[in-house]
Amino acid sequence: MINEYPQLLGDITKGKRRINPSLSIRIGKALGIDESFFSVLQAYYDIRQENRKRSGQVHPDLKKFRSVIFWDTDMKTIDWEKNKPLVIRRVFERGNDQEINEIIRFYGKKDISVILGRKQDLSPALKKFIQISYISIIIKSSGFCMKVFSGVLIPVDGKKLN
User: How many CB atoms lie within 10 A of CB 58?
Assistant: First the structure.
Protein backbone atom coordinates (compact mmCIF):
# COMPACT_ATOMS: atom_id res chain seq x y z
CA MET A 1 0.00 0.00 0.00
CA ILE A 2 1.44 3.38 -0.97
CA ASN A 3 -1.09 5.56 0.89
CA GLU A 4 -1.66 8.10 -1.86
CA TYR A 5 -4.81 9.50 -3.38
CA PRO A 6 -5.77 7.99 -6.75
CA GLN A 7 -5.94 11.53 -8.15
CA LEU A 8 -2.21 11.97 -7.50
CA LEU A 9 -1.39 8.85 -9.48
CA GLY A 10 -3.73 9.97 -12.25
CA ASP A 11 -2.05 13.38 -12.38
CA ILE A 12 1.37 11.71 -12.61
CA THR A 13 0.32 9.53 -15.53
CA LYS A 14 -1.09 12.59 -17.31
CA GLY A 15 2.17 14.50 -16.83
CA LYS A 16 0.60 17.09 -14.53
CA ARG A 17 2.65 16.08 -11.47
CA ARG A 18 6.08 14.60 -10.90
CA ILE A 19 7.21 11.50 -9.08
CA ASN A 20 9.30 12.49 -6.07
CA PRO A 21 11.88 10.16 -4.49
CA SER A 22 9.62 9.30 -1.55
CA LEU A 23 6.81 8.18 -3.84
CA SER A 24 9.25 6.26 -6.04
CA ILE A 25 10.42 4.27 -3.01
CA ARG A 26 6.86 3.50 -1.87
CA ILE A 27 5.69 2.42 -5.34
CA GLY A 28 8.83 0.33 -5.85
CA LYS A 29 8.32 -1.49 -2.55
CA ALA A 30 4.61 -2.03 -3.23
CA LEU A 31 5.32 -3.51 -6.66
CA GLY A 32 8.40 -5.45 -5.60
CA ILE A 33 10.73 -3.66 -8.03
CA ASP A 34 13.79 -1.47 -7.63
CA GLU A 35 12.95 1.58 -5.51
CA SER A 36 14.76 3.93 -7.88
CA PHE A 37 12.91 2.75 -11.01
CA PHE A 38 10.25 5.48 -10.99
CA SER A 39 12.77 8.22 -10.11
CA VAL A 40 14.87 7.17 -13.10
CA LEU A 41 11.75 7.09 -15.26
CA GLN A 42 10.90 10.63 -14.10
CA ALA A 43 14.44 11.77 -14.95
CA TYR A 44 14.15 10.31 -18.48
CA TYR A 45 10.81 12.07 -18.92
CA ASP A 46 12.29 15.38 -17.71
CA ILE A 47 15.23 15.03 -20.10
CA ARG A 48 12.89 14.28 -23.01
CA GLN A 49 10.79 17.35 -22.23
CA GLU A 50 13.89 19.56 -21.94
CA ASN A 51 15.26 18.27 -25.25
CA ARG A 52 11.91 18.98 -26.88
CA LYS A 53 12.01 22.57 -25.58
CA ARG A 54 15.58 23.09 -26.74
CA SER A 55 14.94 21.66 -30.19
CA GLY A 56 11.90 23.88 -30.63
CA GLN A 57 9.60 20.87 -30.75
CA VAL A 58 7.07 22.25 -28.31
CA HIS A 59 4.52 21.92 -31.10
CA PRO A 60 4.30 20.23 -34.48
CA ASP A 61 5.15 22.10 -37.67
CA LEU A 62 2.07 24.36 -37.83
CA LYS A 63 2.68 25.13 -41.51
CA LYS A 64 1.56 21.59 -42.30
CA PHE A 65 -1.93 22.11 -40.84
CA ARG A 66 -4.94 23.73 -42.42
CA SER A 67 -6.67 26.20 -40.10
CA VAL A 68 -9.96 24.34 -40.60
CA ILE A 69 -8.63 21.43 -38.49
CA PHE A 70 -8.54 23.64 -35.39
CA TRP A 71 -11.25 26.09 -36.38
CA ASP A 72 -12.32 26.64 -32.77
CA THR A 73 -8.96 27.77 -31.38
CA ASP A 74 -5.72 29.51 -32.27
CA MET A 75 -3.17 26.79 -33.08
CA LYS A 76 -0.39 28.87 -31.52
CA THR A 77 -2.06 28.72 -28.09
CA ILE A 78 -2.74 24.96 -27.96
CA ASP A 79 -0.96 23.09 -25.18
CA TRP A 80 0.12 20.19 -27.40
CA GLU A 81 1.15 17.95 -24.51
CA LYS A 82 -1.84 18.55 -22.26
CA ASN A 83 -4.32 18.14 -25.12
CA LYS A 84 -2.50 15.24 -26.83
CA PRO A 85 -5.49 12.82 -26.94
CA LEU A 86 -7.83 15.50 -28.28
CA VAL A 87 -5.35 16.67 -30.91
CA ILE A 88 -4.58 13.13 -32.09
CA ARG A 89 -8.24 12.16 -32.38
CA ARG A 90 -9.15 15.38 -34.19
CA VAL A 91 -6.34 15.11 -36.72
CA PHE A 92 -7.08 11.44 -37.39
CA GLU A 93 -10.78 12.25 -37.81
CA ARG A 94 -10.47 15.38 -39.95
CA GLY A 95 -6.89 15.63 -41.16
CA ASN A 96 -5.35 14.86 -44.52
CA ASP A 97 -2.29 12.64 -45.04
CA GLN A 98 0.18 15.48 -44.47
CA GLU A 99 -1.46 16.48 -41.17
CA ILE A 100 -1.69 12.88 -39.95
CA ASN A 101 1.95 12.23 -40.81
CA GLU A 102 3.03 15.38 -38.95
CA ILE A 103 1.13 14.28 -35.83
CA ILE A 104 2.78 10.84 -36.08
CA ARG A 105 6.19 12.50 -36.40
CA PHE A 106 5.57 14.83 -33.45
CA TYR A 107 3.97 12.44 -30.93
CA GLY A 108 5.48 9.17 -32.10
CA LYS A 109 3.84 5.94 -33.18
CA LYS A 110 3.75 4.48 -29.68
CA ASP A 111 1.73 7.33 -28.09
CA ILE A 112 -0.69 7.40 -31.01
CA SER A 113 -1.21 3.64 -30.87
CA VAL A 114 -2.00 3.87 -27.15
CA ILE A 115 -4.46 6.74 -27.57
CA LEU A 116 -6.21 5.41 -30.67
CA GLY A 117 -6.19 1.91 -29.22
CA ARG A 118 -8.52 2.89 -26.39
CA LYS A 119 -11.87 1.57 -27.50
CA GLN A 120 -13.81 4.27 -25.63
CA ASP A 121 -11.80 6.98 -27.44
CA LEU A 122 -12.77 5.85 -30.92
CA SER A 123 -15.76 7.74 -32.22
CA PRO A 124 -17.93 6.08 -34.88
CA ALA A 125 -16.64 8.63 -37.39
CA LEU A 126 -13.02 7.77 -36.60
CA LYS A 127 -13.67 4.02 -36.84
CA LYS A 128 -15.32 4.50 -40.24
CA PHE A 129 -12.53 6.80 -41.39
CA ILE A 130 -9.86 4.27 -40.44
CA GLN A 131 -11.75 1.39 -42.05
CA ILE A 132 -12.64 3.12 -45.32
CA SER A 133 -9.98 5.75 -46.01
CA TYR A 134 -6.80 3.74 -45.90
CA ILE A 135 -6.16 0.49 -47.70
CA SER A 136 -3.80 -1.28 -45.39
CA ILE A 137 -2.65 -4.62 -44.18
CA ILE A 138 -4.97 -6.45 -41.82
CA ILE A 139 -3.03 -8.52 -39.36
CA LYS A 140 -3.93 -10.84 -36.52
CA SER A 141 -2.34 -9.77 -33.28
CA SER A 142 -3.40 -11.56 -30.10
CA GLY A 143 -6.60 -12.55 -31.90
CA PHE A 144 -7.69 -8.96 -32.56
CA CYS A 145 -8.24 -7.44 -35.98
CA MET A 146 -5.82 -4.55 -36.45
CA LYS A 147 -4.86 -2.29 -39.34
CA VAL A 148 -1.49 -0.73 -39.97
CA PHE A 149 -1.51 2.94 -40.93
CA SER A 150 1.93 4.47 -41.37
CA GLY A 151 3.31 1.84 -39.05
CA VAL A 152 0.72 2.48 -36.31
CA LEU A 153 -1.45 -0.45 -35.22
CA ILE A 154 -5.10 0.60 -34.96
CA PRO A 155 -7.88 -1.70 -33.76
CA VAL A 156 -10.57 -2.01 -36.43
CA ASP A 157 -13.53 -2.98 -34.27
CA GLY A 158 -12.11 -4.27 -31.00
CA LYS A 159 -13.70 -7.68 -31.58
CA LYS A 160 -11.77 -10.90 -31.47
CA LEU A 161 -11.45 -12.84 -34.69
CA ASN A 162 -12.75 -16.39 -34.76
Answer: 13
CA angle 29, 15, 72 (to 5 degrees): 160
Domain ranges of the chain: 6-54, 62-160
| CA dihedral of 90, 91, 92, 94, whole degrees rounded to 10 | 80
DSSP string covering 6-70: HHHHHHHHTTSSPPPHHHHHHHHHHHTS-TTHHHHHHHHHHHHHHHHHHTT-SS--GGGS-TTTT
pLDDT tens sequence across 42-56: 998 888 778 767 666
Which residue from 35, 5, 30 is spatially nearest to 20, judged by alpha carbons? Answer: 35
Grouping H, G, I as helix, E, B as strand and the rest as coil, residue 87 is helix
Q: Name the packing angle between helices 124-133 and 84-94 (round to 10°).
A: 50
How far apart, in whole angstroms, are the C-alpha atoms of residue 7 and residue 17? 10
* pLDDT tens, residue by residue, 94-138: 888 899 889 988 888 778 877 877 655 556 655 555 554 443 334
> In what side-by-side order are the strands of the sheet with 152-160?
138-141, 144-149, 152-160
